[in-house]
Design a protein that fits this description.
Length: 660
């Protein structure tokens, strides 16, 4: 058919039969239609197109008549178009519709809505293909923008949910009746529930409550229309929460939702409590420090008096001894005063050294095997004499008949008991003092009872506080450093025990303390007999101070022994090499050239059996342990009484009891 000939009209169901006037009318509609219209052969070649289609594609009619629809179809849409076209040709369908893209002459992409149907011949076969093409660029753009908006909205929701889920706090949405709409992941985790378990439920019901919480940020936000915030402890969760609520309004400014924000502040609250406790402790520590400073100042004034008093006696009566014409009784009286003042001064110095060791945290246990009967016998003997000197009775009671040895720190136990007894003697002017010991709950329990002045209830704890006596005894009615009970308490606790008292003013006092009872400890050896030498009567004294050596020599001049003197550790080693028959060595620890510990070690290499007694002005626990480890069988602390020196020589050299 020629393009200038009239085109017959076709129907989609049967051959087109029409008069010329009808055909002309249809052709007019075809060419003037507001949408694109085309007629193609079954091979897809255009045989007629209207003006609108040329506008859509940008090709002229002549150009289009030499083309098929395939040539102007967008490549990505061609496969679907051909599939539907072939189904049409094969009679599997009468028509098809699709949205597709054409490529215009200017290589632009245009979206169209294509409706295709077949005109059949007398054999009911497709003879011509008729297509209508409607531009949908605006519609498609709107749909694309709508789809993009939907995608953006979904992505925004996902992003918002992701942000919410990344927040470690509970973020949730409620309606105005406290019904939960949703939470973020932190919310489900905090409540240990899933979405299905919380959605639609009252928020307060999730923690087992029937009624709304008394303090509720959500309720306040609903009531006021403003953000609200509260902090509250929930015992059901054992948690402190910082609760915030924010009202959400629609375009009409009507409240529609409440967004709640809950933060777990339990750790912060704990830190606040700790901070308050720390501040309180600091304030208490400050007050105690100020009190301690005041006590120490008062103590220094008191101790200055206590030191200078015996020192004055020593210096004063030593000066009086130089006077000519003194009779023997006066000389003895002056000498006794000097000696007693010296021992009193020594006791004060020992207390000061002990308290300094305790204050610095250097006090340590020095556990060994202790003959408890011998220890208590010595204490009983000492305090019988002290009590008698004041005209009061002294009693001793022991329930340890079956117990001979215990494992403890002998020096500290001796000092604990002695300090308490000294305190009793000091504050008892008439009546009696009683020392007792028994086993209670697998502990050694001691008591010291007196009929002294007694102690007020409010002072029961204060008397164990270091430096407190100056305040408790402001009138200086009773002498002493005031450190004895503080030292005793520290040593009792160091040994694993406790100390307490019962007392009333005017009714005397009873002090109690206990220490763990340990009766078997194979780590310690009883060396009391290891150094016994019956035939060697030579004694070596290693002492760098000549006055101390002379005192030693004068103390033992009546004994049947040979006395040797070394002025340092090195001399002690050389003298021992030259005098192998030496039976006992008194070894001062702190000497020039070579100290006593090193000298002891070298001498023990020569003769492991030689008994060596360590001597020092003050023995720290570590020093005692080193002395024991080096091989010393005993240790003496300066000043050493004459009777003690004689006792050790009698015991280790002469093998007989001292007559003291």
């Amino acid at each position: 058919m020629k393009h200038n000939q009239k085109t017959k009209a076709f129907s989609t169901g049967s051959p087109v039969k029409s008069e010329d006037s009808e055909s002309a009318h249809l052709l007019a509609l075809f060419h003037n239609a507001p949408i694109g219209m085309v007629i193609c052969n079954p091979d897809g070649r255009f045989i007629n197109v209207n003006e609108k289609f040329t506008e859509i594609t940008g090709y002229s009619k002549e150009e289009l008549y030499s083309m098929t629809f395939r040539e102007i179809t967008y490549p990505d849409d061609l496969e679907e178009d051909l599939k539907l076209f072939n189904q049409l040709l094969q009679g599997h369908r009468r028509s098809f519709q699709m949205e597709k893209r054409y490529v215009t002459k200017k290589k632009e992409i245009v979206w169209v809505n294509l409706l295709v149907s077949a005109a059949l011949n007398s054999l009911n076969e497709p003879e011509k293909i008729i297509g209508t093409i409607e531009e949908i660029a605006d519609k498609k753009q709107i749909l694309q923008e709508l789809e993009k908006s939907k995608t953006d909205y979904k992505n925004a929701l996902k992003l918002l949910q992701s942000i919410q889920d990344a927040i470690p706090d509970l973020i949730g949405v409620q309606d105005l009746h406290h019904n939960i709409i949703q939470y973020n992941q932190a919310g489900y985790k905090m409540l240990n529930k899933t979405y299905n378990e919380v959605a639609g439920r009252k928020c307060y019901s999730l923690i087992g409550r029937v009624d709304q919480c008394e303090v509720c940020s959500t309720a306040e936000a609903i009531r006021t229309g403003k953000p609200a915030r509260h902090e509250q402890y929930f015992p059901e969760l054992d948690t402190w929460l910082d609760m915030r609520a924010y009202p959400i309004f629609d375009e009409n400014n009507e409240m529609i939702y409440i967004v709640e924000h809950l933060r777990d502040i339990t750790d912060i609250k704990k830190l606040e409590l700790q901070l308050k406790e720390t501040i309180r402790n600091l304030n208490e520590a400050k007050l105690k420090a100020e009190e301690s400073d005041n006590l120490k100042t008062a103590f220094l004034h008191n101790i200055s008096h206590e030191i200078k008093t015996p020192l004055n006696g020593i210096i004063g009566f030593s000066d009086l001894l130089k006077n000519e014409g003194l009779d023997c009784d006066t000389i003895k009286e002056y000498s006794d005063i000097i000696i007693n003042s010296g021992w009193k001064l020594s006791s004060i110095i020992n207390d000061l050294v002990s308290i300094a060791t305790i204050e610095s945290g250097q006090a340590k246990e020095n556990i060994g095997k202790v003959d408890i009967h011998s220890l208590l016998k010595t204490i009983n003997s000492n305090f019988q004499a002290k009590a008698a000197a004041k005209g009061i009775d002294f009693y001793f009671r022991s329930d340890l008949q079956e117990l001979q040895y215990i494992c403890t720190d002998e020096t500290k136990l001796f000092e604990i008991i002695s300090n308490i007894l000294n305190n009793a003697v000091k504050f008892t002017n008439a009546g009696y003092i009683e020392l007792g010991v028994s086993i209670v709950d697998n502990k050694l329990q001691f008591f010291v009872k007196d009929t002294g002045i007694g102690i007020r209830k409010e002072d029961h704890e204060k008397i164990f506080i270091r430096f407190a006596q100056a305040n408790l005894n402001p009138d200086k009615l009773y002498g002493g450093s005031g450190l004895g009970l503080a030292i005793s308490k520290a040593y009792v606790e160091l040994l694993g025990g406790t100390i307490w008292l019962e007392s009333e003013p005017g009714k005397g006092s009873t002090f109690y303390f206990n220490i763990p009872l340990k009766t078997d400890n194979n780590s310690f050896k009883n060396n009391s007999d290891n150094g016994l030498r019956k035939t060697k009567h030579t004694v070596l004294v290693a002492e760098d101070d000549l006055i101390n050596y002379r005192y030693f020599a004068e103390s033992v001049k009546d004994l049947d022994i040979k006395l040797l003197h070394a002025r340092n550790g090195s001399e002690a080693v050389e003298i021992f090499k030259q005098e192998p028959e030496t039976g006992l060595i008194f070894m001062d620890i702190k000497m020039p050239v070579m100290n006593g510990h090193e000298a002891t070690r070298l001498i023990k290499l020569i003769d492991p059996e030689i008994p060596i007694i360590a001597v020092s002005a003050y023995f720290e626990d570590e020093e005692k342990e080193i002395s024991r480890r080096m091989g010393c069988i005993d240790y003496l602390e300066k000043p050493v009484k004459k009777e003690v020196i004689i006792d050790r020589i009698q015991k280790f050299v002469l093998n007989k009891k001292a007559k003291v």
